[in-house]
């Protein structure tokens, strides 16, 4: 099969991105909370990403967990060669990239503990989806987990005509796919501004045009101009993976596993009486008008009947309070419904998880939970993670010293290389953490501050950043307008540095991304 016959855009390379949903820690927590044994990591594991694009997620995850062996597969050689360069520059010996069509995966890619595919399933031809299902059936180890993301119905229903007209208009234009995508979005905006009736009848679609205008044309090209773009109902995807012998196990983000956090109170009685998870999921998508899903499937899932079994299978996961200053009652709105927790066991959980983090076995062993069934504690903990009250990490985090650092260091070569290559790229810069098993993504300005801190310490930090911005011809904007007055610019950069030191820097130290270095004297 040639690149062209796959019906997938190949003349424009994609954009790099890190997606925390792909991290083994996040995936394993979803399995564990849904009472399925996740693959163990301690003796090493195999992770395969299908359609890895520029490989940014894979390289970052490989840096975050040296125990794993990571393979990225993509049909586009310019994607895999760029990803390979990134892995080499970051000194990664546990990540490799293979240029291959899913129809012809090399034999040595097998017995995977994790297979992930993000931004692939909805965008490829039916025969390519059949190849993916074959890979899922044949290359996932028993007990292995597969994470697939896709554009979902019914959330996409009112936007389908946009994609149709976009493709038809783009086909009439000249230039590469990104250029044609940009012109097609301008045409959509023209239709909208001239009050085409479709837009008058679909105000959500009308608003969406503005979102599209903000997007990178390379993203637009890959998102909308592939021949076989399709959005799926959950039941269709679950049935397809069932045909490959995989069982639906749960979804990301975490709150999607709690229907009471996703559907308004008026529906709750209906859901309470439904015991079939597949039915619940389908109806939940209507209540929430879901337009994107991240679904987890397991091959030969091994059930975890209770908290004791979960502790035996996944006690390397560490839980901690998500950020300082959280008090009870605590409310979270996860898009559709506002939920509130207060009292026991959250009061005790907030207290004991305020430190670097604890395992489930340590949490249930707290004497204050002596009378509480461990299953109830585990459930409360998971609901707390869903509501962003608690985080799940691969290890206890480091304790940040109170004095500011004079000259911090970054222990991972990958992070040093990422910071240097992504400086002012206009994209986020992911920095891998072996403690979270994931990464923090810094914006351009914060990445520049960190880069200067690491290379030259705190001395005259703001002045050096201004000089760096000048050398890269970067403009500082405030409230959407460029700051031209030099004194004001320096003052705003100083403010940015202070905010960085106060909020972002401690998080980087806690996650082990930065070694604190000698304290300020
Ligand atoms: C939208 S991109 C997503 C890339 C990456 N997962 C991300 O989210 O950044 C889809 C990727 O799938 C790859 N792809 C499409 N069809 C393929 C096939 N038949 N075999 C292998 N890779 C394929 C494309 O080259 C592209 O890099």
Q: Could you name the CATH topology of the largest domain?
A: Rossmann fold
Let me know the CATH homologous superfamily of the largest domain.
Vaccinia Virus protein VP39
- Helix coverage percent of residues? 40-55%
Biggest sheet overview: 7 strands, mixed
Defining traits:
single chain, alpha/beta, Rossmann fold, Outer Surface Protein A, domain 3, 4 domains, seven-stranded mixed beta sheet, three-stranded antiparallel beta sheet, 20 helices, disordered N terminus
In short:
By secondary structure, the chain is α/β, with parallel strands linked by helices.
Explain what this protein looks like in three dimensions.
With 521 residues, the chain is of the alpha/beta class. The chain has four domains: 4-154 and 231-299, Vaccinia Virus protein VP39 (Rossmann fold); 157-224; 316-393, Outer Surface Protein A, domain 3, CATH 3.90.930; 413-510, no CATH class. It is 42% helix and 16% strand. It has 20 helices and 16 strands. It has helices at residues 24-33, 56-64, 77-89, 126-139, 160-172, 177-193, 197-201, 203-214, 217-224, 234-243, 268-272, 277-288, 307-314, 346-352, 360-364, 374-386, 413-421, 444-456, 461-471, 486-510; strands at residues 45-50, 68-74, 95-99, 112-117, 140-151, 246-252, 292-299, 318-321, 330-333, 338-341, 358-359, 390-393, 429-433, 438-442, 477-478, 481-482. It has a seven-stranded mixed β-sheet with strand order 3-2-1-4-5-7-6, with helices on both faces. Helix 3 links the parallel strand 2 (68-74) and strand 3 (95-99). The longest helix has 25 residues, at 486-510. Residues 1-5 have low confidence and may be disordered. The chain binds S-adenosylmethionine. Residues 6, 8, 14, 17, 51-53, 73-76, 79, 101-102, 118-120, 123-124, 128, 222 line the site of S-adenosylmethionine (SAM).
């Amino acid at each position: 099969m040639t690149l062209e016959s796959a019906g997938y855009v190949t003349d424009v390379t994609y954009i790099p991105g890190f997606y925390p949903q792909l991290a083994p820690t996040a995936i394993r927590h979803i399995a564990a909370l849904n009472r399925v044994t996740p693959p163990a990591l301690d003796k090493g594991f195999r992770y395969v990403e299908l359609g890895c694009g520029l490989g940014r997620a894979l390289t970052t995850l490989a840096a975050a967990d040296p125990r794993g062996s990571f393979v990225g597969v993509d049909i586009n050689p310019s994607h895999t060669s760029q990803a390979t360069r990134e892995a080499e520059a970051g000194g990664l010996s546990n990540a490799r990239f293979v240029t291959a069509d899913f129809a012809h995966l090399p034999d040595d890619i097998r017995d995977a503990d994790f297979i992930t595919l993000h931004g692939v399933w909805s965008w490829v031809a039916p025969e390519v989806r059949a190849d993916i299902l074959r890979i899922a059936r044949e290359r996932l180890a028993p007990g292995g987990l597969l994470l697939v993301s896709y554009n979902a119905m019914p959330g996409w229903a009112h936007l389908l005509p946009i994609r149709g007209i976009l493709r038809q208009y783009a086909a009439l234009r000249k230039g590469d796919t990104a250029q044609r995508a940009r012109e097609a979005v301008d045409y959509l905006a023209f239709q909208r501004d001239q009050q085409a009736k479709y837009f008058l009848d679909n105000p959500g679609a009308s608003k969406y045009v503005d979102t599209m205008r903000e997007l990178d044309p390379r993203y637009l090209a890959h998102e909308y101009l592939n021949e076989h773009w399709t959005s799926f109902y959950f039941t269709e995807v679950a049935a397809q993976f069932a045909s490959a012998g995989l069982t639906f196990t749960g979804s990301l983000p975490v709150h999607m596993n709690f229907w009471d956090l996703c559907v308004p109170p008026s529906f709750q009685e209906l859901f309470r009486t439904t015991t079939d998870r597949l039915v619940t999921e389908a109806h939940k998508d209507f209540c929430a008008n879901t337009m994107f899903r991240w679904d987890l499937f397991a091959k030969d899932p091994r059930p975890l009947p209770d908290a004791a079994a979960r502790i035996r299978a996944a006690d390397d996961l560490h839980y901690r309070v998500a950020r300082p200053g959280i008090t009870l009652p605590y409310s979270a709105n996860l898009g559709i419904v506002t939920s509130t927790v207060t009292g026991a066991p959250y009061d005790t959980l907030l207290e004991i998880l305020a430190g670097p983090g604890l395992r489930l076995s340590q949490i249930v062993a707290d004497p204050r939970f002596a009378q509480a069934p461990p299953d109830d504690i585990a459930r409360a903990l998971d609901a707390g993670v869903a509501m962003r009250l608690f985080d799940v990490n691969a290890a206890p985090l480091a304790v940040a010293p109170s004095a500011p650092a004079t000259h911090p260091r970054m222990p991972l070569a990958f992070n040093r290389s990422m910071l240097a290559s992504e400086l002012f790229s206009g994209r986020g810069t992911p920095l891998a953490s072996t403690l979270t098993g994931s990464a923090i993504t810094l914006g351009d300005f914060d990445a520049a501050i960190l880069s200067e801190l690491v290379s030259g310490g705190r001395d005259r930090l703001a002045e050096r950043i201004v000089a760096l911005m000048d050398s890269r011809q970067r403009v500082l904007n405030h409230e959407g307008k460029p700051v031209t007055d030099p004194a004001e610019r320096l003052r705003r950069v100083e403010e940015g540095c202070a905010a960085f030191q106060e909020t972002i820097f401690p998080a980087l130290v806690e996650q082990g991304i930065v070694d604190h270095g000698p304290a300020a004297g």
